Structure formats: C-alpha cells, structure tokens
Amino acid sequence: MIAQLQLNNKTYQVDLSKPIDISIPMNSSDSVLAWYLDHLKIDPVKMGDFVGEVDSGASVNFRNIQFNPHAHGTHTECFGHISRGMNTVDQFIQPGMYEGSLITVELENKNEDLVVTKERIQNAIADTNLNTALVVRTFPNDSLKKSINYSNTNPPYFEQEAIEYLVQIGVKHLLVDLPSIDKEKDNGKLAGHKAFWNFNGNIRKYHSITEMVFIKNDIPDGNYLINISFPRFASDASPSRILLYPLTLEGKQ
C-alpha cells in the first residue's frame, strides 16, 4: 500500500506494506540483557495437577512471563523513569507514526569510554530534515547487539552535550541501539536522561527514549516514518516494537 505524505513542504511516498523491524525479540535464553539481571522467565502456570502447556497435556498454553523492560530488550520509556511518583509511559507517550530519520554515528574513544559526541551527530544529521523521531545507529555495529549481556561492560553512551543538541534541534523521540543513553555507572547522575527531558526546567513530558534497538548495516541512513508501539503497561517503561518505513521524495526512486 503506497501512501503520499506532505512533510516540511515536500511530498514523500511510503510503502506501508514493507516495514523494517528494528526491535529485538524478548527471548528467555539468548536475547540482549542488561542491568545485572538474569534472563526473563517464561514458565507454564502450575495449579495442582494442571500444567499450562500443550506439550504437558493441557488444552492450551498458559504461561507466566517475568521480565524487566529496561533489561530484557527493546523498550520505550518516559520521564517517569527518573521522576518521583508513578508517571507512566502509557499516560504520556502516544504510540503511532512519527516522521524522522536514521543516522549512523561512529563512536569516539574518550578517557577509555566509547561515546557519542555532539560533533559526530551534527555531521551525521546534516543530510536529513525530518527529526521529530531520530534513530541513532552506533558504529561499530554487529549482530552481537541482539544477544550481548551489557552488565558490567561499561557500554557506549551519549555525552550530555550531544543530548542537549538533539533537544535543541527538536528531537522528541530518541531511539538508540545502546542499553542506555547514559554511562552504566555514573553515581546516579543520569545527565543524558535529565537533559533530554529538561528535568530541571519545564519537563518534556510527552517525549520518549527507546533503547536497545538493532539496525542492520544494510538499512540505509535517511528519512523514514517511524512507528513506535507498545502494550499499555502502567509503568515508566514498556517493551516496544519499532518499525521503519522508508520515505522517498516524489519523483525519485
């Protein structure tokens, strides 16, 4: 199904029948993992002689799932992740389609940390013009991002100045292939999260951060419709599914 869109005074075409899924499946054994937790658990319900599994003789599969959205796969979070009280992603973030872009940023080594810098983002984003949602693929990039245990590995993160720049250019929904935009062990500073949500000012309550996506190398940088969807968990974060739809300027192939 081909749709035509007017964005920033330009006409784009998009094939809505060909989504590109950049979310990581939440598996019980070999999926990505972070924050010092074990893998998620998927177990059949057991009540007396009943075992909720067809392979065990039940008429249906009836399983419990125990997981943490921040640790066990692709997830979308709201400002409630760092606020007092129960501010939930389903209250403040609207699932749906957002115009945006995908950029690739090479990590920079600073003081034995790998970081995303403002300068690298500025260079990568120069050729895009749709930044309501921004997907950042970090390089080096390989399929290990779908199964690595990030705990105690000091993963790459965004410098605060890089996040402040994204806020300045109007990014409302930031999607990254890292376990966090902040350093793993930063003594609770969370400088990137606080900068993105303008936590010390007029809080950007309706803006989201999605972490632990995976973008294959053969997906080109450029403009996309970005679908952010998640179940309605009343929590600061929810597991999410992220789909990209390439945008083509009318008249170009």
How would the blueprint of this fold be written?
Blueprint lengths: L1 E6 L2 E6 L4 E2 L19 E4 L1 E2 L2 E2 L11 E4 L8 E3 L11 H4 L3 E11 L1 E3 L2 E4 L1 H8 L7 E7 L17 E2 L1 H9 L4 E4 L14 H6 L11 E4 L10 E8 L7 E3 L1 E9 L4
Parallel strand pairs: 9-12, 11-13, 12-14, 14-15
Antiparallel strand pairs: 1-2, 2-18, 3-18, 4-7, 5-6, 8-15, 8-17, 9-16, 10-11, 16-18
Helix content: 10-25%
Low-confidence stretches: none
Euclidean distance between termini CA atoms? 16 Å
Number of strands: 18
What do the pLDDT scores average to? 95
Give the oligomeric state.
single chain
How many helix segments? 4
Shape: globular
Strand content: 25-35%
Largest sheet composition:
11 strands, mixed
Q: Which structural class fits the helix and strand makeup?
A: mainly beta
Task: Provide the succession of SSEs.
Answer: EEEEEEEEHEEEHEEHEHEEEE
Give Rg in angstroms: 19 Å
Notable traits:
eleven-stranded mixed sheet; three-stranded mixed sheet; 4 helices
Describe the structure in your own words.
The mean pLDDT is 95. The protein contains 4 helices and 18 strands. Strand 14 (173-176), helix 4 (191-196) and strand 15 (208-211) form a beta-alpha-beta unit. It is globular and about 65 Å long. The strands form 4 sheets. Strands 1, 2, 3, 8, 9, 12, 14, 15, 16, 17 and 18 form an 11-stranded mixed sheet that branches. A 3-stranded mixed sheet has the order 10-11-13. 11% of the residues lie in helices and 33% in strands. The chain starts with a strand and ends with a strand. By secondary structure, it is mainly β.
